[in-house]
Automatic annotation (TrEMBL):
PANTHER family: TRANSLATION INITIATION FACTOR IF-2, TRNA MODIFICATION GTPASE GTPBP3. It comes from the Bacteria. The lineage of its organism: Bacteria, Bacillati, Cyanobacteriota, Cyanophyceae, Acaryochloridales. This is 50S ribosome-binding GTPase. Gene3D superfamilies: P-loop containing nucleotide triphosphate hydrolases. The chain crosses the membrane at residues 242-262, 274-294, 306-324. Keywords: Membrane, Transmembrane, Transmembrane helix. GO terms for molecular function: GTP binding. GO terms for biological process: tRNA methylation; tRNA wobble uridine modification. Residues 55-164 form the G domain. InterPro entries: GTP-bd, P-loop_NTPase. GO terms for cellular component: cytoplasm.
Length: 364
């Protein structure tokens, strides 16, 4: 997996680039037949290396989104009007914010009369954003609350902008501006400049790592729907336990079959073996081996004359079946996360970046 590294010693965008390169190289070798599942990693790599930062404005109709962008840009480049929903599709212009290059994107309103097509276009643009300017007025509506929840779910950073400050009282939260009078526009421009210089690289990296993590989970889920290997190993152990003479041999068979099953499962999902979380799983497996051994004791046989069956066989079969079910359940969260646990795995990097950010915050 390569040499060790410290997150703080490398630029965050370089670390993210290494992550995407690692994932693409891994899947090209191990999952060529599932390329449709991991193709989005190429798009993420392209976005990571874009020179321009992408800022998208979001909000309901007639909230002053286009007027806000015009005020930031310093020129009436986005159309505005009194009619409902002047902006009918996303439109992007290039903006030079001091030494930073920014693509400003205007979007249709969240409650457009044209229906879901325009809203879908809006969210497609938002999902490509490094930062969202979430435009509202004096209070959040139900539609705006739902949109903010969706931004949180997608882990897209946003700034709450209260427009028309000359007409409405300011909200407790948010940046109050007026595109008509110019109130708050210089402060907002300065805030964006600061964000671009200090926070934009990490925001883009975190966003792309979260999306790469979702790609891995989708691939793992697709592989999981095809995985039926546990049942063949379960059948083999059931048959072997019937034929073997005692509990010691049953346990030896269980050790061989479970390790072989776990290794085979890792190969099927093309994730590293042994498991990083194998320590926790091994504790359960050892207890399960003990249960298999105890269930083979003749002293545990009861009621065989009454029921006409060998209750040792039934009990041991139940223990083996239960154990495999538990192993599958405990393996699934690891396997179906995809290839995330290597040195440059998305989840591992996210954890380290979050820890680094927490340490910086605490020391600051």
């Amino acid at each position: 997996m390569g040499r060790s590294f410290a997150v703080s010693s490398l630029p965050v965008l370089d670390i993210t680039a290494k992550c995407l390169e690692e994932l693409l190289a891994w899947h090209q070798v191990h999952h060529p037949q599932w390329s449709a599942q991991w193709q989005p990693l190429y798009e993420l790599r392209d976005r990571l290396h874009q020179r321009a930062w992408h800022i998208v404005v979001l909000g309901q109709v007639s909230r002053g989104k286009s007027a806000l962008l015009n005020a930031l840009y310093g020129e009436a480049i986005f159309p505005v009007g009194a009619i409902h929903g002047t902006t009918q599709w996303p439109r992007t212009v290039r903006w030079h914010c001091q030494d930073q290059i920014v693509d400003l994107t205007d979007t249709p309103g969240l409650d457009e009369v044209a229906g879901s097509d325009r809203e879908s276009m809006t969210w497609r643009a938002v999902e490509m954003a490094d930062l969202v300017l979430f435009v509202t007025q004096d209070s959040l509506t139900r539609v705006e609350d739902e949109a903010r929840d969706r931004l949180d779910t997608l882990r897209i950073p946003y700034k709450l902008i209260c427009t028309k400050a000359d007409l409405y009282p300011p909200m407790a939260k948010g940046i109050a501006v007026s595109s008509t009078t110019g109130q708050g526009i210089p402060e907002l421009r300065q805030l964006l400049q600061q964000w671009l210089q200090q926070e934009a690289p990490q925001a883009r990296a975190l966003r792309i790592l979260h999306q790469a993590s979702q790609v891995e989970q989708n691939l793992g889920a697709a592989l999981g729907r095809q995985d039926t290997s546990a049942w063949s190993w379960l059948t083999a152990q059931m048959v072997g336990s019937l034929l073997l003479p005692g509990g010691f041999f049953d346990v030896v068979l269980a050790i061989i079959s479970t390790l072989a099953y776990i290794r085979k499962a890792c190969q099927a999902y093309a994730v590293p073996f042994p498991l990083p979380a194998f320590g926790g799983l091994s504790q359960f497996v050892l207890l399960w081996y003990a249960a298999i051994y105890l269930s083979s004791w003749q002293g545990l046989t009861f009621g065989s004359e009454l029921w006409g069956v060998n209750t040792n066989v039934v009990l041991q079969g139940g223990v083996i079946f239960w154990g495999y079910q538990q192993i599958r359940r405990r393996l699934a969260p690891y396997l179906q996360q995809g290839y995330q646990w290597g040195q440059y795995g998305p989840q591992r990097l996210l954890q380290q970046l979050s820890q680094t950010r927490a340490n910086v915050t605490a020391s600051g």
